[in-house]
Fold each of these.
Amino acid sequence: MEKNYTRSGDEVLKVAHIIRVFSYGGAEVLLREFFAQPEFKENVTSDLFVLDHKKLGLKDEVTPNIRKFYNYKITHYAFLFQYIKFLRDLAKGKYDVVHIHLPAAGWLAIVAKLFCGKTQFIYSEHNLVNFYKKFNYYLSGWTYGFFDCVIYVSEEVGEVIRKVQKGWFFKTKKAVTILNGIDTNKFLSTHRSEVNPSLELTVGLVARFRPQKRVDRWVEVAAEIHKKNPGIKFIMVGDGPSDELLRQKIAEYNLVDTIKLPGKLNDTLAVYKQIDIFLLTSDFEGLPLALLEAMSCGCIPVVSNVGGIKQLDFGGVGYKFDGFNPEEIADKIVAYTTQPTTYFQQTEDARAFVIK
């Protein structure tokens, strides 16, 4: 792994990336971003293996930057034969590195590791493992020791792993923390100085609507904001397992015509340009890429102080909350409509923070 790979024949690093789904979660977006980096494309040949045949929202965005894209129906009997072929490719030394994201893909890689002594297996941990469902938690814990290296996307992710380590359980041969990052040249908005926060303030979210995102709480905050200032707008971009819960809560609070739900969108940059306040009400996070993308575009963060977010010192920008108090959170957001100077300064500081 110390070798300096260049684009000359066999010297190009050959990598297989394995992930469960390829929609708009942080792990998927992170893959999309570094596949697109010129230095990465010049020095790495990438094949992407997705263990799903439906959640492929980012497929078209990454295929120009990789060699091959494979997707499977992991619950179909034919997957067994496809998996055996994959193992054979690995055993032949087709890849120098197998890079695995998230638990389900991690279990798959364990069997492959037994046949591939020379291939390096790297696992990326994007979440706080103590919040995983039990089968993910225990199966992941017993597979960690097989990986040659585990990457934590935040200090908090690594800290949780160290707390639960016991013997072989969550054992790591080598562990390294590499903070999530984004392309600040790509995620840039130049129109903030033209915004009138007293008339145009928009609260938004871009996310995969998983249970830990607590979209129900997001709607509760939106309801409080709407009571205090009906002129404030709302947009929630994405989809996922909590989509139905989200719609139920929106109907419950009579906000059907107030909160826009455009679904998942490929052009997230255009969405961030519409958002002034990035509201995140998650129970837990690793280090959310969407938050960094939003701040890079000048969105002010109002976020749960959980996971990797704890280690981010915003320096007075936005608002982090430990306990969930919808009215208090709403007050913090509504205040920007009467404090334009604060709004303009904090949008600049939000981007400066991400660049730093």
Amino acid sequence: MNPQLVRRIDSWLGVPICWLLTVVRRAAALLPRRVSVPPKRILFIKLVELGANVQAAGAVKRAIQAVGRENVYFWVFAENRPLLELLGQVPAENILTIRSSRLFAVAWDTIRTLIAVRRLGIDTVVDLEFFARASAILAYLSSASRRVGLHRFGSAGPYRGDLMTHRVQYNPYLHVSQYYRLLVEVVLGEPDDVPMPKCPAPQFDAAVPQFVPSAAELLEVRELLRSPSGDQLSGPMVILNPNASDIVPLRKWPIDRFVELGRRLLRSDPRLSIVITGAPDERSAGEAVAAAIASPRAISVAARTNLRQLLALYCLSDVLVTNDSGPAQLAAMTPIDTVVLFGPETPQLWRPLGGPRTHVLWAGLACSPCVSALNFRFSCCNQPRCMEAISVDAVTQTVLEVLRLRQQRHCHSAELAPAGASAA
């Protein structure tokens, strides 16, 4: 659904529903309380944003340590299910989904899933959706006795009632992966402190489950990597992802700069190839970028790969240049180096995992970041100067330096390889 429509629905319907359910909750609090027991079955709610599920890997790992893999569940929109299956942390049968294609489907699947959640006896819900009202409502209606999520307390953050048993103060200085992990730590304790939590923040951990493609998947992707003449692309390979999701369109670097970047990289090395990627609805846009670069060594595979094939492509390539969007987070699951262009959001919170293979470019203008959990990730900005401030020169130099370092590592590995063995 349209992100603006989702925001309006969340506001127009979410505010009165949260208020009404808060009245119900406070009235119920006058009744004798149930004896608190440790969590037995934990449900994560993270409906939107594919890449955020990668950032949540550490939190899911901690939940598995606490209650066992078979007792951890995830509630997402249906289009995000393949990534959770690929991560493999949660059993496939524990992934609950809502179709987001039509409003009726959303309503029907929500009711169906709430019934399933109650039947499963889930006692703990972890709301990963920051200040979204829909997820807070779902957490309350799940009937779980433990519900952890953000609460605005005395701040000017979005109102979403008082529906959580474990109310967490928003900290805009924690990386999102630390915040997700913190929610799990909070729900494992008792909600005695206000606000929560009064404990050290979890250590930042860049580790993420790694994707290993099959030989068949690598072969399928290699078949896609052919020039218009049918020749197999070879040499260093740079992927350009010119688009970003419609959730925050301000994150897009100008398309003409991606075109100029591709041209410069091709001129820098006659062996180098450029591959354009994109979502299923971006096929024509990807082909237009490849045509504008105007080289037989530049092709588009936008809308021609599924999730596993896209990750296999990352495994075969050297560098991904992308806006701050889902592909930047997915790339952390592969050996590729990633150059990520940040603007209206801050890398302090959203830097992709992957450790030294992630390279961030951010102008750090005085108005940035203008998008945060406190404004429902919606900015009034009418011109993304923060993205325009990232020059083609800066991105080109970064990519070339990353390619040089990768070549050095490859040569070093070859020197250390035993006699008769080939370097990976």
